[in-house]
Design brief:
By secondary structure, the chain is an alpha+beta fold. The chain has a single domain, classed as FAD/NAD(P)-binding domain. It contains 10 helices and 25 strands. A hairpin with a 6-residue loop joins strand 9 and strand 10. The longest helix has 30 residues. Bound molecules: flavin-adenine dinucleotide. The site of flavin-adenine dinucleotide (FAD) has 32 residues, from helix 1, strand 7, strand 17 and helix 7.
């Protein structure tokens, strides 16, 4: 990466090829996918990410599905990361006997996916970008104005610096500022829940198993991390979250043990906790002339299957591929003819994952008479039917997705 290149055009406006708002996991992955394209990419990030430490580890973790791990490997970022292998997944319901178990052996793979700390993934992506002069990250930097002009989009930073590009990409998260500036509305559903995240130490080794327990008030995930620790994501309605967050560690562990059960022996220690409100959002338009949205700026989903950043990584790869192709064929990559291709390629995956998350959430939180019996039975059937199970597993590992592994 370079220090800012002071190439001033059009009356003190620096011209680049692509502007990106937000250098989170998705914005950085997008920049990585363009590192060899010869394009000048400038990311504007408002601040260093906040790391939520819990038992000495970031408690914001992502389960990277196998297909996306291969993407990160192709980008050159995986070698800078240590991912904890998730070899088995166990899902069960607190109402009925039954349950689903997925094993990596069943798809002849070493793992179903890998758990990484969000701050580590961001650091790995930044490290990958270091040797590239064509990629620049301005941080901390605040954009005060964005204007869509004929043939380009122009932004102004708080320090008065102006930049212009044929395309601006919104990778600025669920409450995207850029999406608002472009006047793009969202479809949104408030789950009236928050996800409590923390790292915990159970008595027994997890052996690379990810556990997900569905309760009437929301799912509790226990994800395998290094040194025998597990990372929890416990989705609960706001009142319960307030109550659980107010408990001391002993009280919290008591409730956690009661909800999770004895699968890993007693959970003995919990680190600092944090809670994040959960909303599903879908931008009404993924693209506008000279604008594309990726990652959480385009969609947010319930974390019950841990797929949010996975969807975002696939957006990043597909958009980067369309831009590289447009450059190759001398097309304007800020034009709707190119951007619509990105939108059309991504919508089926986004809608299908959002639909599945919504369906699962409704099924598992509904107390409609008889439904608990049906879902227990459903789990039993799935647990026994190897064909259905392997299909489900392939989808949740992301192996069947039509996503370019490496932009080129
Ligand atoms: C409890 C919980 C658990 C989760 N678990 C998983 C999981 O296991 N697996 C998974 O795949 N996903 C998971 N997710 C979802 C995942 O965290 C998000 O999908 C992911 O963080 C989205 O990345 P992003 O880069 O699009 O957005 P963000 O991570 O939100 O990054 C946006 C970046 O933009 C910057 N920014 C914002 N506004 C501006 C601005 N105006 N100017 C400049 N910069 C700006 C921010 O500072 C930030 O760096 C979970 C989410 C929650 C809440």
């Amino acid at each position: 990466m370079t220090a800012r290149i002071d190439k001033e055009l059009n009356g003190h406006v620096e011209q680049v090829d692509v502007l990106v708002v937000g250098a989170g996991m998705v914005g950085l992955a997008f920049a990585c996918a363009l590192k060899d394209s010869g394009l000048r990419v400038t990311l504007i990030e408002r601040g260093e990410p906040q790391v939520f430490e819990s038992l000495g580890m970031d408690c914001r973790v992502s389960a990277i599905v196998l297909g996306n791990q291969q993407i990160l490997e192709g980008l050159g970022a995986w070698k800078h990361l240590h991912g904890e292998a998730m070899r088995t997944m166990r899902i069960w319901d607190d109402q009925q006997p039954g349950g689903i178990r997925f094993d990596a052996d069943e798809i002849e793979a070493d793992a179903l996916g890998y758990l990484v700390q969000n701050s580590h993934l961001q650091a790995a992506l930044k490290k990958t970008l270091l040797p590239y002069d064509n990629i620049e990250i301005l941080c901390p930097a605040t954009i005060t104005k964005v204007e869509w002009l004929s043939g380009h989009v122009q932004i102004e930073l708080e320090d008065g610096h102006k930049l212009a590009a044929p395309l601006i990409v919104g990778a600025d998260g669920g409450r995207s500022w850029l999406r608002e500036q472009a006047d793009i509305g969202i479809y949104s559903r408030d789950y009236k829940q928050s996800g409590i995240v923390a790292n915990v130490r159970p008595m027994m080794p997890h052996h690379g198993t990810a556990f997900q327990r569905f309760t009437a008030s929301g799912p509790l995930a226990m994800l395998p991390m290094k040194d025998g620790l597990c990372s929890i994501v416990w989705s609960q309605f706001h009142d319960d979250v307030e109550r659980l967050m107010a408990l001391d560690d002993i009280g919290f562990l008591e409730e956690l043990n009661l909800t999770f059960g004895p699968m890993l022996g007693r959970i003995e220690e919990v680190g600092k906790r944090a809670a994040f409100p959960l909303k599903a959002r879908l931008a009404m338009h993924l693209v506008r002339p000279r604008l594309a949205l990726i990652g959480d700026a385009a969609h947010t989903i319930h974390p019950l299957a841990g797929l949010g950043v996975n969807l975002g990584l696939r957006d990043a790869m597909v958009l980067a591929q369309e831009i590289v192709d447009a450059k190759k064929y001398d097309e304007d990559w800020g034009d709707m003819s190119v951007l619509n291709r990105y939108m059309k390629l991504r919508m089926p995956d986004i809608l299908s994952v959002m639909g599945s998350m919504e369906g699962l959430h409704r099924i598992f939180t509904s107390q409609f008479p008889g439904l608990p019996v049906v879902r227990g039975l459903g789990m039993k059937v799935m647990g026994n039917a190897s064909v259905i199970k392997s299909l489900l597993m392939k989808n949740s590992t992301g192996l069947t997705l039509p996503v370019p592994k490496q932009v080129g």
